[in-house]
């Protein structure tokens, strides 16, 4: 795959739970080396979309291509280049940090020397070296979150998918993660796809932003492009976000009803950038 | 209020039945399998009752004694399962945090939790005890009043252990230091088994199968007519049932009165005690989750033993670096991870004691069975296959306990496996390989020890060992596969997962597999045994060879199919 080709391509992606449509015909492509932010209100379909990209959920329709590998046809190849950081750091409590990282290295079939080198680097980066032999169950939420970061970065993935990176981290942790994201993309050429409610993070680190509502992408572009689109020319991302997602009670009720009826056709109404311009509610799921 | 608290549970069950994740065929499949199992249990019980009736003049007494043993075993099982269930429903359930923060009157909360514990710990016994008791009625030719009485007896019978368990739970969580509660439950579990074993051993039930082992008919009558112990609800149940079973006109109301008054009294006593003491116990139990107890001290010691002997992180990393370009296989990584987690999980240890207890009980009982097995009842061949079946069932039960929950105990960490570059099939094979060794060792130890104790024929020992080996390989993979078909990722209690709906389905299918392998291999096993013993026997026919081929291949097919089914079922959940 050449460098200029998108590293993530979502083609007509749909996820339904029964007759409820969580993600409704999403089309998206992400260029390599970018930090791509996915924003949206609660239940917009962000987490569902990210979980489909990482293989935690199966799409109902549509395809996902990561680094040239279709996730339905070559799931293992696609997963080899993807790292994932969930919003809640559930890890094996009865392992030590060192054992957890060694286990991740084994899952990705890394050479022992590389595993050792990466563990040394990452434990230092995330300030966990002195806790390496402690059981994870004794870690605080923030420490667990840092350990999950270390685990996701251990195999040096080309694509890092991050769901709500700042949950449970203190201000120092926020700074660490923001600096790390920049370093990973600028120095290592990694692509980061992150969903967040912390608009300040998105504003600071994202090269491109997509705003998702009711299972659709309702806008995408750089922050300045989004400002233009929303009409809030010199507003903060918060203003842009609120303008783009604002709707009346009736509009919201109608769109939620539409999502429960099984979603809309991708040809119903198309937005300015060729994206579906519809909206709606829910998500979560997964094991 | 109680209706609302229980109602929400029913709605949750209804919701899970509707759940597309759990599959549309879950309920019909369970019903069909349960029915088949039920019928098989009924027919074999009926056979025993009919056979017993032919033993003159003690047939009726014999049935009475066998029923009282059945009640006693059920009582023991109920006592054990209720203590486990009560501790989790009253003190450790996730939803308690929510319920305790709501303005629910204490008595109502107790009532709802009591009913939940009662249902959870009793339904299996209620369902699978029924065919035995109904078979007794059918075999003896009892009238409809027996079946009405049976229901009337079983309801209070299952309610007593639950009420007692709530009091035991309350006592332990209040009296003992918070961090000792786990130790106490560990102790209670072991003590419960020891008592049950002693009581049943004292009865020597195997003698009942062989009347000739008694010195005189008087001795036998004496043994049969003495009640097990008049203080146990199992004897009250017998006291109420037996007169109706044999259509006697004079019925003693006392047993029934005791059966009903005891759970009612215990319920009110428990409610009364829970008013001032429950909250304290609940709060202490939460502290106990983190406290230092014998269990956690031992766990810390285990942690030290199971982490590398090298002291510093740098040395550990150095050791890894010294391995150079070596890549550890994915399966080995999965197995190592599971074994470490298992060893460090204190909740699993009481189960290891249970395994040891099962082995001791099995071998001691088997030795006694040798005495009971005369030519008329079992014979050498019968004893050999009876032993194989019993050992097969132990393997099914052990796999159910240790391998079935292995997928579920991944819990909320399962995202790591889904997201990693590994197929779900490989993940499940890893689970199987990781848990296989203990089941294999126990299975082989049991079959060798029991056969050497009794048969003392090395040729048959090898044949039995091979049969148990293929059964173990098959059922252990089945348990992993079915554990993936019916996962409970949000249930932290492995023991409860092992007694869940999916586990019952697995157990029934596992038992079918054991019986099918034994039936299919019967003729050829006998022939091979005779050859190895240099005895003469007619060679088997083609049909027998086909049957044995199927019997040998069936566990492999069941293993492969179950793992495939488990993986595809997990994928459907995504």
Topology:
The complex is a heterodimer of chains A (287) and B (574).
Chain A: E1 8-17, E2 20-30, E3 35-39, H1 46-54, E4 61-66, E5 69-70, H2 75-80, E6 82-85, H3 97-107, H4 112-125, H5 141-153, E7 159-163, H6 171-186, E8 191-195, H7 199-205, E9 208-213, E10 216-221, H8 223-230, H9 237-245, H10 249-260
Parallel strand pairs in A: 3-8, 3-9, 6-7, 7-8
Antiparallel strand pairs in A: 1-2, 1-4, 4-5, 9-10
Chain B: H1 2-18, H2 26-54, H3 59-92, H4 96-100, H5 106-140, H6 144-175, H7 181-203, H8 205-208, H9 217-225, H10 233-245, H11 254-288, H12 294-306, H13 313-322, H14 330-344, H15 349-372, H16 379-402, H17 414-419, H18 424-454, H19 458-485, H20 494-497, H21 501-532, H22 542-573
Helix pairs in contact in B: 1-5, 2-3, 2-5, 2-21, 3-5, 3-6, 3-7, 3-10, 5-6, 5-11, 6-10, 6-11, 7-15, 10-11, 14-18, 15-16, 15-18, 16-18, 16-19, 16-21, 18-19, 18-22, 19-21, 19-22, 21-22
Primary descriptors:
heterodimer; A: 287 residues; alpha/beta; Rossmann fold; 2 domains; six-stranded mixed β-sheet; four-stranded antiparallel β-sheet; 10 helices; 10 strands; globular; disordered C terminus; B: 574 residues; mainly alpha
What do these coordinates show?
The complex is a heterodimer of chains A (287) and B (574). Chain A has 287 residues and is an alpha/beta fold. Chain A folds into two domains: 210 residues, P-loop containing nucleotide triphosphate hydrolases (Rossmann fold), CATH 3.40.50; 64 residues, no CATH class. In chain A, 37% of the residues lie in helices and 21% in strands. Chain B has two domains: 258 residues, no CATH class; 245 residues, no CATH class. Chain B is built from 22 helices and no strands. In chain B, helix 2 crosses helix 5 and helix 19 packs antiparallel against helix 21. Chains A and B meet through helix 2, helix 3 and helix 4 of A and helix 13, helix 14, helix 17 and helix 22 of B.
